[in-house]
């Protein structure tokens, strides 16, 4: 069930071409925390005989290695104080 009063803060910023309908309480949504590095590594097929390694994140540098990350959240039911409580997990 959609709630027209629920404003999706992500659709316009990250997906301007998308006509998203955000769902209200109890529905999961994904937020991209870190994108893959644009030209971080060339990936190969297994039959080529060498490992390609991990996917570097856009904030990776020579001293600090980061990886792409997303945050999966579920908007929970309102708390007694009337606010919204979010359950999140960063992957």
UniProtKB/TrEMBL annotation:
Q: Which GO terms describe its biological process?
A: anatomical structure morphogenesis; canonical NF-kappaB signal transduction; cellular response to stress; epithelium development; inflammatory response; innate immune response; non-canonical NF-kappaB signal transduction; positive regulation of transcription by RNA polymerase II
> Could you tell me which InterPro entries the record lists for this protein?
NFkB/Dor (IPR000451), p53-like_TF_DNA-bd_sf (IPR008967), RHD_DNA_bind_dom (IPR011539), RHD_DNA_bind_dom_sf (IPR037059)
Molecular function as annotated in GO? DNA-binding transcription factor activity, RNA polymerase II-specific; RNA polymerase II cis-regulatory region sequence-specific DNA binding
Q: Which GO terms describe its cellular component?
A: cytoplasm; nucleus
Q: Which SUPFAM superfamilies match?
A: p53-like transcription factors
Q: What are the RHD domain coordinates in residue numbering? A: 25-72
Protein name, per record: RHD domain-containing protein
């Amino acid at each position: 069930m959609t709630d027209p009063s629920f404003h999706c803060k992500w659709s316009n910023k990250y997906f301007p071409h998308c006509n998203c309908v955000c769902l209200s309480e109890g529905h999961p949504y994904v937020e991209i925390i870190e994108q893959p590095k644009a030209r971080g590594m060339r990936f190969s097929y297994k039959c080529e005989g060498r490992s390609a390694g991990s996917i570097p994140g856009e904030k990776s540098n020579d001293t600090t290695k980061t990886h792409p990350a997303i945050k999966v959240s579920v908007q929970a039911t309102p708390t007694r104080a009337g606010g919204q409580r979010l359950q999140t997990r960063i992957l």
